[in-house]
Amino acid sequence: MSMLAQLVVTGVLVGSVYSLVAVGLTLVWGLMDIINFAHGDFMMISMYTVFWLYALLKWDPLVSLPIAAFVAGMIGLLTYKLVIKRVLNAPGLMALLATFGLSLFIRNLAQFLWSPNYRFVGESILSGKRLIISDVIVGLPQLVAALGSIGMTLAVALFIKKTKFGKAIQATAQSREIAELMGVDTEKVYMFTFALSGICVGVAGTLLSGIFPVYPESGAMYGLLAFVIVALGGFGNIWGAFYAGIMIGLAETIGGFYLGTQFKYAIAFLIYLLVLQFRPKGLFGW
Amino acid sequence: MRKLLAVLVVLLSFVVMAQEVIKIGAIFPLTGAAAATGVKIKYAVEVAQEIINGVYPEINLSLAKSAGLPNLNGAKVQFVFADHQGNPELAMAEAERLIRNEKVVALIGCYQSSCTKPASQIAEKYGIPFVAGSSSSAALTERGLKWFFRIAPHDGMETVFFFNYLRYLNEKYNANIKRVAVVYIDNEYGVHAALMVKEKIKDFPEFSLVADVKYPVSATNVDIEVQKIKAAKPDAIFHASYIGDMTMFVKKYKEFNVVPKVVLSYCGGYQDPQFVVNLGKDADYFAGTNATTPALFAKMPILSKINEMYKAKSGVDIDGPTLEDFASALVIAEAINIAGTTEPEKILEVLKTHTFEAPYFVSEKIKFGPDGQNIYSASVMTQIFNGVYEAVWPEQYQTHEPVPQFPDWKKR
Amino acid sequence: MARVMLEVQKITMKFGNLVANDNVSFSVNEGEIVSLIGPNGAGKTTLFNCISGFYKPFSGKVFFEGKDITGKPPHQITMMGLTRTFQIVKPLKDMTVRDNVLTGAFLRSSSKKEAERIADEVLELTHLWEKRNMLAGSLTTADKKRLEIARVLATRPKMIMLDEAMAGLNQSEIKEAMELCIKLNRAGITLLIVEHIMEAIMPISHRVIVLSAGKKIAEGEPAEVTNNEEVIKAYLGERYYAKSKKLDHGL
Amino acid sequence: MKKTPLLVILALLLILPLVVEDVNFQHVMLMMLIFAGLGEAWNIITGFAGQTSFGHAAFFGIGAYTSTVLFYKFNVSPWIGMILGALFAGIVAFLVSYPCFRLKGHYFAIATLAVAEIIKQLFVSWDYVEGATGISIPVVPDSFWAMQFHRSKIPYVLIAYGLFVFVLFVAVAIERNKMGYYLKAIRESHEAAEALGINTARYKLLAMIVSSMLTALFGTLYAQYILYIDPFMVFGLDVSMKIVLLTVLGGLGSVYGPIIGAAILIPLSEYTRTLLGGTGKGIDLMIYGILIVIVVVFEPRGILGLLRKRSRRRLNYGKSNA
After folding, report:
1. Does the structure show a pLDDT above 90 at C198?
2. CA C9 to centroid of chain Cα atoms
3. Given CB atoms, is D173 within the 8 Å cutoff of chain C?
């Protein structure tokens, strides 16, 4: 029983980080119908930011968080300005192709600049600390990552729902033409959303840097899982992505523990297929 | 006049001969997930090239003392690098390109056994020697290839070495190790190592396998894997993991307070000096086979000198797998030198019969058996103390006594 | 008495709590032009979707030429000879006009030659021949609407259901569309038309059915229906709205 | 007249590897033919029918594994294995189509990705096919029956060429006939297609089966050429994405697209790697990546779009004005 409790806790912690990666992706995907293949690589850049601030200046990851988020946000913004903007009206999968090329470029640029070595942020305020509640062990880095993820998702959701700019994003997601007729500067909306997506994944990268190695391919698996999570939650649905992330985390830990750890991602993919048989547009999609 | 011309021609041809470059292909994962190791190996092979082509009287190696290969009029050796990205298709294509287009006379590589397989198949097809350094899958030397040689001990040998070490700990230190768990990555490297454990444990009846934990390639976390291990309460854990996942495991062992008596690692992540850099004191007490360790440098001046050159390029001390690939470069060059020609058959003859000097290994020599496997195991058991890989076994190389007990994580 | 072509029996369609069609019944005879009118949100398009198989009705039955087609997939219904157009045109944008029509023509002939013959015939009939090599996506609204009709015509239907085929057209285009309807009807095709523009359909319809809030409130000849008090009540405001809307688009 | 460029391309693809004796060039040509063929096969389901598949590696892998296991365990000729592989791929396509086709658009695309990843994991864990260790195909002397040629790459190139022409023929035949029109109608509008009497479910399924079977053929050839397979290399997302990307780059939905895409992308990746891959700094992939971005940014309709720009304009407006 305590094993199951431990698994559930672990699943939620693991899943909440997935959620945060996915929330950034779903924003862009829902708004522009663009699959950003380089999303995981934005995260990798933010992890490196955290790492170098730690290695060179001994900054704690929590201190570097705003900087890493800013860096990832800027990369998102630049990606929009330099690449996405020009392929917005291109047929079907062109944007995917562009972001794939970008992903390849970023990954190898990271290798070129920082070598392919696996790095870790060795010491931080959180590292090695843990809570023990009866038999259940909760690592503090994971707990903070999960809380940060929930906080960030909440902030993004509130921002979209409550602010004027958030409403402009919603309107643009419904229909670009109509939003423009209503006086929304859709260009600005797109740019900002890409930046916001970058910030989300930047925060995710920071929170992960204490528990996951930093190397040029860091973002690859998270990026892949994020695709599935976004689709599971329903494209463009922030809370959908959040809950889907948790669900995948739980499926991975509980399914993996009982059915074989090597299957943990296969189980996550299976969950996607099963759930969508009943909700063909994702958990929260219509 | 005509005489002069003739002399000139002869002279010129000497110069040309003297400057002839012998190309050897070196195929490694220089990009992609295993690039961290591949790039280090590249530095090591470059060091080998410098040693062969330059004059290093302080290094007591026959090829170090003269520039180039003395038996081939001082011909220089050039290692032509190619990147297989961890993809067997590319390993195969690059092998063929190097042989046909770059006219390499021999090949070394490919780190990952899955890439060494098709690449050495190509060498076999063209009748060109292939010397693998660190690829450890036992299957490689079980294929009956004529042109394939391997320096590293294969995972079958490593496994036997592991069990013998455990036996030694039980006998000498009353370690009372019985329960063994094997934890491995779900690819050719890990799966094959685990297979060897299941096979060899039959010869060591005092041990029982209590957990078999396989985790997917590019895992985002290893939480449940560690919980499975913890539930099995092993005395010894065998790890076949790369540096990234290995580091995550150690962090989780600490978090979940997993305290086995020994953790032994196959040639992989543990041997990477980054392991200690990343984990600091948490890396202490982990153990594994290694072809070398900085602790041995003091005892082995040649190794120390090689490491100096390597460290200047890479910034870290040379590690086991890297040294094995370094050795492959030296061995093939020496074989060509002894053959006195680049004719493949002659080189093959030398590789088959000659015992190569290898003062940088604890075994000090390399000799290939009929299957192409190096019969002198180059490995020692190492264990980390205060961030240093100390040699703990066999006793004649010992730089530190083994500690067959993990202290509690809180008491470090 | 003419043969009954389409019979709709007590169709009810719900979306959650919203009742879009409430117990609607009517029939269309062979060779007739019947119009289905009603204010916005009366459930006309939903009814079309129920008949043509895009929705499975909550209850009720649909018969085409005496055969039960309720809940059959749309393509089977088309195969039987009952087809439809869409209110929001769905041109096969990246294909040429001719290829659009050809796609329809393949229903009756797998041979490309024969299908091309059918398609070219239809293109002539609908005055799209000149534009046959244009991409469907680059047509004007009027031509797109015409293409919708041309495409379904190529499937050699016995009956066509037109969903607002005239909305958004200007006066002369509406006139052309009316003429096309009459032409099709003379060629023996039964028509069921959903339309807002009364001026256009009243003259050509044999019968009119009025829906309001999901219910059928009247049925009869155009003159009868326009004098029906209930219809006027339900419809009057809407009619002016339709007029003004028409003006907008006419510009 | 319309056929001329295609015939010229076909002739070039055949003559070039035969004339140029450089093995590396022949290898590049071989890979080009294989991936152009894979692109053609994928194009049927995605380019024509508009159902984006990110999981075609599954069928490629099934083709590779079927022939390899049969040859390795039972000494069955890879030619027979190739046909059986295509059959298995078709069956798997049929089985996975049902759950996948319930989903539309990106939901479908992600579903195909999920299916391929699950199948990969099953093969990784399947001991009978050697799991993660992969299979080294036993080397036998040159033989057509065993589909192994060690003295020259030309036979491989010829087989690849034959398969490519076959797939191209199937693709062209589909495109020019009823099925092609139906698939494109489904792509443009599901509802319009239904209203035109098209059994969309059946045609999508048919397209998926044909596409997967053709894909599997190349899997067998690939395995026989590399002589080693493991689940990561044949079932990997990399393979699926490579097929997607080169077709998209060339031009989706046209039979020329995959040829153009493969002719650009494959040599680009092979030659940047051979020229710069040895540095260990990832420069080759940086260049490869950024070139893709540049091409897309400056020609968002794909290379074919660029080539067609002028003729299309003439087609659309010139004729209507006349």
Report:
1. no
2. 19
3. no
The predicted pLDDT at position B3 comes to 59
Average pLDDT rounded to a whole number, residues D84-103: 94
Closest chain D residue to B119 measured between Cα atoms?
A: D226
Backbone angles phi, psi at A148, to 5 degrees: -60, -40
Q: pLDDT per residue over B340-393, tens digit each?
A: 999 999 999 999 999 999 999 888 899 999 999 999 876 889 999 999 999 998
Q: How confident is the model at residue B402 (pLDDT cuts 50, 70, 90)?
A: very high
Supply C138's token pair.
């680059």
| HEC per residue, D103-161 | CCHHHHHHHHHHHHHHHHHHHHCCHHHCHHHCEECCCCCCECCCCECCCCCHHHHHHHH
Element (H, E) at C7: strand C4-15
The mean predicted confidence, pLDDT, of chain D is 89
CB atoms within 10 A of CB C230: 12
Cβ of B31 under 8 Å from any chain D Cβ?
yes
> Which has the closest alpha carbon to C99: D4, D177, A91?
D177
CA distance B118 to chain D (A): 6
Q: Do D132 and B97 make contact, defined as CB atoms within 8 angstroms?
A: no
Q: Which of A104, A105, A280 sits opposite D107 (nearest CB)?
A: A280
Q: Which tens digits make up the pLDDT trace of D202-225?
A: 999 999 999 999 999 999 999 999
**What gap in Å lies between CA C238 and CA C222, rounded to an integer?**
17
Cα–Cα distance, D315 to D131 (Å, whole number) = 54
Both structure tokens of C21: 């069609």
Place of tokens 């590396």: D24
Q: How far apart are CA B27 and CA C185, in angstroms?
A: 76
Q: Is the dihedral of CA B45, B47, B53, B55 positive or negative?
A: negative
For chain B, report the end-to-end CA distance as a whole number of angstroms.
Answer: 84
Q: Which residue of B has its CA nearest to D140?
A: B125
Q: Cβ contacts (< 8 Å) between C152 and chain D: which residues?
A: 195-196
Gyration radius of chain C's alpha carbons: 18
- For A55-99, write each residue's pLDDT tens digit: 899 898 889 999 999 999 999 999 999 999 888 887 768 888 899
pLDDT tens digits for D231-283? 999 999 989 999 998 998 888 888 889 999 999 889 988 888 888 877 778 88
Q: Please answer whether residues B133 and B325 qualify as being in contact, where contact means their C-beta atoms are separated by less than 8 angstroms.
A: yes
Q: Is B383 an 8 Å CB contact of chain D?
A: no
ipTM of the complex: 0.88
Distance CA B366, CA B329 (A): 13
Whether A43 and A218 have beta carbons less than 8 Å apart is answered as: yes
Task: List the single best residue of B97, B242, B314 to mutate versus D (max D Cβ within 10 A).
Answer: B97
Tell me whether residues D282 and B38 touch, CB distance under 8 A. Answer: no
Average pLDDT over residues B201-216: 94
Neighbours of chain A (3+ CB pairs under 8 A): B, D
List of chain B residues whose C-beta atoms are within 8 Å of the C-beta of residue A213: 243-244, 247-248, 278
Q: pLDDT tens digits, residue range A120-163?
A: 887 777 777 888 887 888 888 889 889 999 999 999 999 988 99
| Cα separation, D255 vs D3, whole angstroms | 12
3-state SS string over B90-113?
Answer: HHHHHHHHHHHCCCCCEEEECCCH
For residue C50, name the pLDDT band (cuts at 50, 70, 90): very high
Of B295, B245, B297, nearest to B266 by C-alpha is B245
Candidates D110, D114, D112, D105; CA nearest to D50 is: D105
Give the β-pairing of B148-150 and B179-185.
unpaired
Cis bond before residue D100 (omega within 30° of 0): no
pTM: 0.90
